[in-house]
Design brief:
single chain, 415 residues, alpha/beta, 5-stranded mixed sheet, 10 helices, 20 strands, 31% helix, 26% strand, globular
Length: 415
């Protein structure tokens, strides 16, 4: 009798372990679509009243969906100046009506914008002037629907994946903080491979404004990121997602004005750095997913933001506060955090300091595009380089501190 009971206990233990092991299998799906705006649409970035006359390369929305048997979430990148929070809410609403074939909450959608200055105005600031928005409502509806559809397609195309990562630095010759010396040059990349070792999708985090083409061409382009994608696809196959980093305060290419072919070469160089890092990299030890987020109210000290919202140039509610969202999530030892705007490098580095050992990703323009988030010193000393412009495009002096407080709280949840 005792032997029989012992056998049953062993069987139950085996089944429990098997279920646990099964839950640790990571599945990944990916999908992308072209999101080029129509000719004549307003161009975001630099001066107002610029319109597209052609295309140098295509803009994309790319979605990757992750599922470990317990948790799931979607990670999306959009080639645009910066998708606003209210558009993320619309995407979630669309996804909520779709069958994703896996247990999935639309609340678990993370969106980061590449911030290309050769993409359409999706904010409203670059119309003919400040009396009218530059957003095309029909295009924005198309963008919301297309993004939701890519999340659905990615969830249907799931494959079991193994994950490896690489970390390096890049851009010493062409990327600079033109306000001060502080800069984060890190390149962090995750690669998800199928059972045969073929690339499913890679995620690469790097910080630099895609502004080579800003006010130089009137053609659609994802800027140097186009060259990055082309080289990654050529060398690794599969899909690739670029995740913009902390580019505020002002992380820029220093050789703007070079020919388009050389712009693509900048992206090629970034891709080669990511590929080399992967060759020297290592496997993630765990595929477990973790996801947590927090909706927050950020104080608005800048009257211009309130006026732009009141006048309908920016289609969202902005009073003495503005609602936005911050997300902290992980894939095994790889940790990710979103910043709802263009954050100065100091906030990116502080965010990484909160993260445990392993690959660290800071997603600038994540979940929102609330302008520049800079150090308080820029509000106190207008003689600092570009301080007048940066503060004019910021919510206020305390935004960075408020953001870091929320990130610290999220980093400690689940400890």
């Amino acid at each position: 009798m005792k032997g029989y009971l012992y056998s049953i206990l062993l069987s139950l233990l085996f089944l429990s372990c098997a279920r646990k092991e099964e839950a640790q299998v990571l599945q990944v799906g990916v999908s992308k679509a072209v999101i080029n705006p129509p000719m004549g649409a307003f161009i975001a970035g630099d001066k107002q009243n610029r319109r597209f006359t052609g295309a140098l390369d295509s803009l994309y929305v790319k979605a990757a969906v992750f599922h470990d048997g317990n948790e799931s979430f979607a990670l999306v990148t959009v080639d645009c100046i910066g998708l606003l929070y209210q558009d993320l809410l619309k995407i979630r609403e669309k996804v909520g009506t779709m069958d994703l074939a896996i247990p999935f909450s639309p609340e678990n959608i993370v969106i980061s914008s590449t911030h290309t200055h050769a993409g359409p105005d999706v904010v409203g600031l670059w119309g003919e002037d400040y009396t009218q928005s530059g957003v095309d409502p029909d295009y924005l509806d198309f963008l919301v629907l297309t993004t939701a559809q890519q999340i659905q397609k990615a969830a249907v195309n799931m494959k079991t994946a193994e994950v490896k990562y690489g970390i390096t630095e890049h851009g010493h010759q062409w990327v600079a903080n033109i306000c001060e010396e502080e800069i984060d040059r890190s390149v962090t990349v995750l690669q998800f491979e199928d059972a045969s070792g073929q690339n499913i999708v890679s995620l690469t985090n790097f910080a630099c404004h895609p502004t080579y083409l800003d006010a130089v061409y009137n053609e659609i382009s994802s800027d140097y990121i186009a060259g990055f994608y082309q080289q990654m696809e050529k060398e690794l196959g599969g899909e690739h997602i670029f995740l913009q980093g902390a580019i505020g305060g002002w992380i820029q290419p220093v050789d703007k004005g070079i020919p388009y072919a050389e712009v693509l070469q900048r992206g090629t160089g970034l891709a080669n750095a990511a590929i080399s890092a992967l060759k020297e990299g290592q496997r993630l030890g765990s595929p477990t997913l973790n996801f947590r987020k927090q909706t927050i109210q950020l104080p608005v000290e800048n009257e211009a933001w309130k006026q732009l919202a009141a006048g309908g140039i920016i289609q969202r509610t902005i009073t003495d506060v503005v609602e936005t969202e911050v997300v902290w999530f992980s894939i095994g030892e790889a940790t990710f955090a979103t910043h709802p705007g263009e954050t100065a490098p100091i906030f990116g580095l502080q965010t990484k300091a909160l993260m445990p050992e392993g690959p660290k990703f800071v997603l600038g323009l994540g979940q929102d595009a609330l302008g520049y988030i800079v150090k308080p010193e820029y509000f106190e000393d207008q003689f600092l380089p570009h301080a007048h412009y940066l503060t004019r495009m910021s919510l206020g002096k305390g935004t960075g501190k408020d953001l870091m407080k929320v990130l610290e709280e999220l980093s400690k949840k689940g400890e």
